[in-house]
Design goal:
The complex is a heterodimer. Chain A is of the alpha+beta class. Chain A is 38% helix and 13% strand. Chain A is built from eight helices and five strands. Classes of the chains: A alpha+beta, B alpha/beta.
Chain lengths: 191, 584
């Protein structure tokens, strides 16, 4: 499972919910551009391509933006641990790691800005506008030790499960994907 | 102009008007005749602007030249749930600048959901010599530097309330900027601040202000400093604790208990972050005098919490987490016969499985046991028409009913039917219902009930409900007193909106997101109704880059005398005559 998620997703900032059929290239350019802001809570990802009427949703409630309607202030202040949620952030090529307080940010777009400031990697902001071409890919390690692409799950869920962040170079990501593809090919040969 | 011999001199009228305080009544007075309008506007001292874009600073100042108190609200309510993108608007600065010039004697500014900068706070601090009250509710955009300016300059400040605001907390030292000679503080709410304030400064401030009635601390104030603070202000009526936890030491406990017991006027308690249940009994001695208790940050399940509640026989308002469970609510129902307001918040809103034994039964018990219950906000995971029916019949005196069944479109868990009849019973029996929030599986029928019975309804919140435009039409055509309507993820579209365009001018605002309203319809609405601002929000690009029939992401319509606003960010478009020409 972990390997699969690292496979395509690491290179593809696709728009879609877990469980939906994966496609490498999203047909709607506009959808992709909005990825961060939508999942941040500034858009409603399930209604985008519907012209209305069809209300069948397959997402669990955790995927729905702004639902249940708990005030963001209350959400932020209800955390059991101290409100400071510092996690380590490593950036490929940087000589040392940094720490960032996830609790200080309201969503993915704020996080992207904060990461930009920390590392001066302006790729983060660009990722919001043009994910295909940005140089860096943010990934995070979740509670189960898997490396996940930042942006798939609602912000609150991300805050709770993120243990550390890594800003990966896109070129590295391709290498990893190639490695896994090679591993797969070897496995298939040996079957 | 000839004045009738028997008409009152202006001074007498003015004196009479000074007894009329409600905005509605003031408005009625001003409509009687021109001279009453004139007299009234000169002696109006307090104004409430429910939507800062419905009017502009110059218009306000021109009509009311002698205000002492202004209240402004900015962003739509759904901004609380992250549905309004950053940069949308609600900027306080233009208002504060204008008021600084026009109202040198302004005493009170209350802002809700607005963006307030440090610069604005500095202007306030320097411009109003008699400034007394600053309330920033769910605001953002300022730092502790702005607060320092207020503290240092506002010699007559009585109230500083930052409830639920997002403050960039650069340093706790701002509190020390209150001069030693400053003693007029009556109310301080810093519960939203993230960092420690200078505790010594706080203690000194508290003890030198003899009229301090309300003190709401932030989480960072440790429990072992609370007794000192309380001893410095035994006249406190409202207290919000800081973190309610500490190493368990008997001296800390007894110190705390003694300090609480010394606050004979304490009527309201809140705070209780990180609560350690074994410290709750310190509060027991004053429970019998409490009328309001906010335990909604007490993220702990414990019998001490329920015991606490059971001792508060005078309790009128309780905010609590669903850790209280049905059992606890039954105790509440048995003990607190004066209860007027209950809010039960979810401890685990995103969990897929229930984590607590809280069901519809808890609310039913309270509706049975608390005859004065008027206001309900309840998060739960299951509901039935039968329960809603019972609640409605038990409590026809409900005025606010907000129910959130956590899973969208949940049916009646017993019959698997929609919850139309249950909510229908609520609107039918609760004839004074002013505010209603719906959830669960709902068809157009519930809206038919609401349109038929919800005659006093002023605010309605709808999500994931309805089948067709008919639902929206029922509400817009039936609810005579509707002021605010907010809708998300419902299949409501053009027909109902356009057919009821005139209704929108009688309301403060309409919000529709993820519905089926087309861009074309928004344009038509904007053209047809010049006194409405029809704002379309779309973060994926200009709506005219897509076909006219494609639905808009978000629509916010509000009446205004100020015309289209000029401070819109790139993702908001106003549909007015000009834009229609531009686009086509």
């Amino acid at each position: 499972m972990a390997r699969e998620s690292l496979g395509f997703e690491i290179t593809e900032l696709r728009l879609g919910l877990p469980g939906e059929p994966k496609s490498l290239v999203s047909t709607n350019k506009n959808e992709k551009k909005r990825m961060f802001s939508e999942i941040d809570g500034n858009g409603d990802n399930e209604k985008k391509s519907n012209t209305g009427g069809n209300l069948k949703t397959t997402e669990s409630k955790a995927q729905v933006v702004g639902w249940p309607p708990v005030c963001s202030y209350r959400k932020k202040n209800s955390m059991n641990e101290a409100t400071k949620m510092y996690v380590k952030v490593s950036m490929d090529g940087a000589p040392f790691l940094r720490k960032i307080d996830l609790g200080m940010h309201k969503g993915y777009s704020e996080l992207a800005l904060a990461l930009e400031k920390l590392f001066g990697c302006y790729g983060m902001g660009e990722a919001l506008k043009d994910p295909e071409n940005c140089e860096h890919v943010p990934i995070y390690e979740d509670k189960e030790g898997d490396w996940m692409l930042v942006g798939d799950v609602p912000w609150e869920m991300f805050m709770e499960s993120c243990k550390r962040l890594r800003i990966m170079k896109r070129s590295d990501a391709w290498q990893i994907e190639r490695t896994y593809i090679e591993i797969d090919e070897i496995k298939e040969k040996n079957v | 102009m000839k004045k009738a011999a028997y008409s009152f001199p202006e001074e007498v009228l003015e004196h009479v008007f000074s007894f009329i305080i409600s905005d509605k009544d003031r408005s009625s007075i001003s409509l009687v005749c021109k001279s009453w309008y004139e007299i009234e506007r000169w002696c109006r001292r307090k104004v409430f602007v429910g939507n800062c874009y419905a009017v502009s600073p110059p218009i306000l100042i021109k009509r009311f030249p002698e205000l002492r108190s202004v209240t402004l609200k900015g962003k739509p309510h759904f901004a609380d749930f992250n549905l309004v993108p950053e940069g949308w608007g609600g900027f306080a600065c233009p208002w504060i600048r204008a008021m600084a010039g026009a109202y040198p004697w302004l005493e009170e500014i209350r802002l809700k959901r607005m963006v307030v900068s440090d610069e604005s706070l500095e202007i306030i601090a320097k411009s109003f010599r008699n400034f007394k009250v600053l309330v920033l509710s769910s605001c953002e955009g300022f730092t502790t530097e702005g607060l320092a300016a207020i503290a240092a300059n506002c010699r007559n400040l009585r109230e500083l309330d930052l409830r639920e605001s997002e403050v960039e907390d650069l340093s706790g030292r701002w509190l020390s900027d209150f001069p030693d000679s400053y003693t007029s503080l009556e109310s301080l709410n810093i519960s939203c601040l993230g960092n420690e304030v200078n505790l010594l400064a706080l203690e000194r401030l508290v003890s030198r202000c003899p009229n301090l009635k309300t003190l709401r601390l932030n989480r960072a104030v440790p429990l072992d400093r609370l007794p000192n603070l309380l001893r410095g202000a035994p006249q406190l009526a409202e207290l919000g604790t800081g973190a309610y936890t500490s190493e368990m030491r008997p001296d800390v406990f007894s110190n705390l208990a003694e300090a609480f017991a010394g606050c004979k006027q304490l009527k309201t308690l809140s705070g209780f972050w990180d609560v350690l249940p074994s410290y709750l009994p310190a509060v027991y001695p004053i429970c019998s005098q409490l009328i309001s208790l906010n335990l909604s940050y007490a993220t702990v399940q414990s019998p001490e919490l329920i015991k606490l509640v059971s001792l508060c026989e005078k309790l009128q308002k309780l905010w609590v987490l669903d850790y209280i469970e049905d059992d606890g609510l039954e105790v509440l129902a048995a003990s607190c016969k004066d209860l007027r307001e209950l809010r039960v918040f979810p401890s685990d809103p995103f969990g897929l499985e229930p984590n607590v034994a809280l069901t519809e039964q808890g609310l039913v018990s309270v509706s049975e046991g608390c005859p004065k219950l008027q206001s309900v906000l309840y998060f739960c995971r299951q509901m039935s028409n039968a329960a809603l029916n019972t609640i409605a019949r038990n409590r026809p005196n409900l005025t606010r009913f907000r129910l959130c069944i956590i899973e969208p479109r949940s049916p009646d868990y017993l019959t698997l039917q929609p919850l139309d009849d249950g909510f229908g019973a609520i609107v039918e029996h609760c004839k004074d219902l002013r505010r209603l929030s719906l959830s669960g599986l709902l068809t157009d029928r519930v809206f038919e009930y609401i349109g038929t019975y919800g005659k006093k309804l002023e605010m309605l919140s709808v999500a994931f409900a309805g089948d067709s435009d008919l639902g929206l039409h029922h509400v817009l055509s039936g609810c005579d007193n509707l002021r605010k309507l907010e809708i998300r993820d419902c299949p409501f579209g053009d027909k109902a909106l356009l057919a009821n365009a005139a209704k929108l001018e009688t309301m403060r605002s309409l919000w529709m997101s993820s519905c089926s309203v087309s861009f074309g319809a928004c344009k038509v609405l904007g053209q047809k109704m010049p006194r409405l601002n029809v704002e379309v929000m779309d973060e994926s690009g200009p709506p005219d880059s897509r076909p006219e029939s494609s639905p808009v992401e978000k629509l916010y319509v509000y009446r205004t005398v100020a015309g289209p606003r000029l401070d819109m960010p790139g993702f908001v478009w106003t549909m007015d005559d000009d834009s229609a020409l531009r686009i086509s």
